[in-house]
Amino acid sequence: MAHIDYYFSTFSPFTFFAGLRMEAIAEKHGATVTYKPLDLMALFARTGGTPPKDRHPSRIEYRKQELRRQAKKLGITINPMPPGYPPNPAPSSYALIAAQKAGGGNLGELVQAYGRACWIEERNIGEDDVIADCLGQAGFDPGLAGGMMLTEAEEYARNLEDAVNAGAFGAPFYITDGDERFWGQDRLDDLDLHLAGKL
Fold it and tell me: By CB neighbour count within 10 A (0-12 exposed, 13-18 middle, 19+ buried), where does 169 fall?
């Protein structure tokens, strides 16, 4: 059975734009998935990337255009610079890690709930009440919010190390158990073809 390690940031717009396509691809091919939320800014620092705010003006402008275009393709409207952006990704990531252990809900829906809260609803996904609402929307116990434990913090830090060691450098990033790497929501068709043995 194929397996996908899914590295992502809970506030990444491109993670949000992926929707539930990766989950559908995994189901189609009988693949298992491990969700590995991480600190994207730390990943950039470790792998030669630059945070959006520190990029050359041409790259900043291109990112704005790309956000607008990708959102339009999906039929949604986002604020390309929501209030308080970027939020602290740790609390929402800890809650997702706890939810993955607890089960009972839909992790893909939880990632999407975080994205909607940040990019459409302009809510701060670093706040416990927003995280609790997102957990509930995805079928998880809202009480997982704010109950962050040492084990979740340790796993969050380990996800960053795993990403660096596995060759990930952005988000979303998908790595199969055969070490095939796919960066970005626009590479999901390639992931599908690879799992089908066609690529």
Answer: middle
Instruction: Walk me through the domains of the chain, giving residue ranges and CATH numbers.
Output: 3-195 (3.40.30.10)
Within 10 angstroms of residue 158's Cβ, the number of other Cβ atoms is 13
Per-residue pLDDT for 84 more than 90? Answer: no
| Pairwise CA distance, residues 107 & 88, whole Å | 20
Q: What is the pTM of this model?
A: 0.96
DSSP for the chain reads --EEEEEE-TT-HHHHHTTTHHHHHHHHHT-EEEEEE--HHHHHHHHT---GGGS-HHHHHHHHHHHHHHHHHHT----SS-TTPSP-HHHHHHHHHHHHHH-SS-HHHHHHHHHHHHHTS---TTSHHHHHHHHHHTTS-GGGTT---HHHHHHHHHHHHHHHHHT--SSSEEEETT--EEESGGGHHHHHHHHTT--
Mean pLDDT of 73-80: 94
- Phi-psi category of 184—alpha, beta or left, where left has phi over 0 and alpha has psi -120 to 50? left
What does the pLDDT look like over 158-183, one tens digit per residue? 999 999 999 999 999 999 999 999 99
Name the nearest CA neighbour of 41 among 6, 87, 107.
Answer: 87
